[in-house]
Amino acid sequence: MSLTLNSESFMPWRGESVGSIVLSHLYFGPDPRGLGGFEVATGASQNSVSVADLKQLHKIRLGGRDTSLVVAVVSGGQVSLLGPDISLGIQNLGVDSATRQLQAALDESDTLQATKRFLSTLAENWTRNAL
Which of 5, 19, 23, 43 could make an S-S bridge to 13, C-beta 3.0–4.6 Å? Predict the structure, then answer.
């Protein structure tokens, strides 16, 4: 199963892979203010992914830039999400749910709105899962 997103601006994700993760695509949201755009970096793995691997991929992709980045890796029918704030840890969602949430963020008008939307949906997931 794969993660399919739509964005006017996307490209293959080339670069240094980590662990068993195979890099896939980079998707960019609108950036009318020149703030860097909301960015989703996707990949896949045949094995479960570790927190350390996702954090390392996030760090490599950011490369010192200040942008809102989410790393999304599909493995075993679920998607492990990390970012934009890595201190919040990993969120594991089904592929359909992750696709909807990431697509909604990419569809926002700018980076700030996209980040706000994405973080609010993550908070809803955490609350729902805690009950």
Answer: 23
Structure tokens that stand for 50 in this block: 């570790």
Q: What's the sign of the alpha-carbon dihedral 13, 66, 83, 6?
A: negative
In a domain, 2, yes or no: no
d(CA 86, CA 49): 15
Domain count, the chain: 1
Instruction: Tell whether 4 is covered by a domain.
Output: no
Structure tokens at 48: 């479960």
Q: What is the pTM of this model?
A: 0.91
Residue 129: band (very low, low, confident or very high) from pLDDT cuts 50, 70, 90: low
Contact between residue 35 and residue 65 where contact means Cβ atoms under 8 Å apart: no
pLDDT in tens, 51-101: 999 999 999 999 988 899 999 999 999 999 999 999 988 999 999 999 999
* Cβ atoms 71, 55 nearer than 8 A: no
Q: Give the amino acid at 106.
A: L
The residue to which tokens 């980040």 are assigned: 115
